[in-house]
Each structure stands twice: as C-alpha cells, then as structure tokens.
Write a structure and sequence with these properties.
There is one protein chain. By secondary structure, the protein is an alpha/beta fold. It is built from seven helices and eleven strands. A hairpin with a 4-residue loop joins strand 3 and strand 4. It is globular and about 45 Å long. The model has no long low-confidence stretch (mean pLDDT 89).
C-alpha cells in the first residue's frame, strides 16, 4: 500500500484511507450470478455524477456482490431511472435522491415515478462506513472487476483530519447505501 501511495498518489492505510483493505482483497472476476441470489440496486444521485450499483446477495453465505455499475455524468433523473428500469423495474433499490430539488419537486419523487420499488437510503455516514468495513473485514463484500469506477473511488476514498473528503465519492456513497441493513 505504501508503494501505491508514493507512486500513484493513492491514500495508504496509515494516512487517511477510509477502508483498510487493499483493492485486491475486494476485487473479484465476474461470474454468472445464480438465479437464487437476491438482487437490487443502490443509487447516489447527482448532476455531475450519478452512481448506480447493481447488487446480488448470497443469503447462504451472507456475501454481497457489486456486480455492475452505472456512472453517469450530467444525466437527468428520468434518464438515470430509464437505465435502471431497463435492467428490470422489479428490482428493489435504495437511493439518495432527496437532497436535490428540481422545479420545486424533490428528486426522489421523480425517481419513484419511474422506479416504484425505490426507497430512501439510510444516509448515516459513519454507520454506513462501519457496515462496509465489517463486510470487508469478514470477506462478505466483493466487487466485480468490471466495476472500474467503484474500484477507482475505493482506492482514493480518504479522510482529512478525521473528515471524509467529499470528492469523487459517488460510488462510495452508493456502496454504503447498498450495504446498510
């Protein structure tokens, strides 16, 4: 981890990285997801970037897999919802879309018009980070290697003087929402 910190500018374990596990411990090669795995999605809405993660849950082993992602720049909620709906409007999801308003309407209501199984995410930051960290520590969170944006953010997600640096963190927020019980 120190080599990556010095050569690539990636925060290392002792200098503010939020998650203390190397990306190699989290990243796995994609595999066909068995039909009995529960599926869903998590969404972090934003104008600059909206991150959507598609999740599969192995109930037998309590392992959560991030199998696919959408990383959309400058898309309206209707467009993002359309991409999600194309995967199946039956998918349950959690999302942070309540903070922004558009034309006086909370964005979550726009999303819910297109994605009726979308509920508000628990946005508790430290509790969510703890949930992710516990899954990582026990090997119960895996990210497919094809989720390049999430893996990129994972390596750069860090704190400065104890506070989360709110930059390039949309996929990390999405992942945190997806890991909350």
């Amino acid at each position: 981890h120190l080599k990556d910190a010095r050569s690539k500018g990636i925060p290392s374990m002792g200098t503010g990285a939020v998650y203390l596990f190397a990306v190699e411990a989290v990243r796995i090669d994609p595999f066909p997801v068995p039909p009995y795995f529960r599926r869903g999605f998590a969404l972090d809405d934003g104008w600059n970037v909206s991150a959507v993660g598609f999740l599969a849950y192995d109930n037998d082993h309590d392992i959560l897999y991030l199998t696919n992602e959408l990383y959309l720049k400058e898309h309206r909620p209707e467009q993002v919802a359309g991409f999600v709906k194309a995967r199946g409007d039956w998918l349950p999801g959690v999302g942070d879309a309540a903070a922004r308003t558009r034309d006086g309407v909370q964005v979550i209501t726009i999303y819910q018009r297109f994605l009726p199984k979308l509920s508000l995410a628990d946005k508790e930051v430290e509790a969510g980070i703890y949930d992710v960290q516990m899954r990582l520590a026990s090997g119960r969170l895996k990210i497919f290697s094809t989720c390049q944006n999430t893996l990129w953010e994972y390596q750069r997600y860090h704190r400065d003087e104890g506070k989360i640096v709110k930059r390039d963190d949309h996929a990390m927020d999405m992942l945190r929402y997806g890991c909350r019980p």
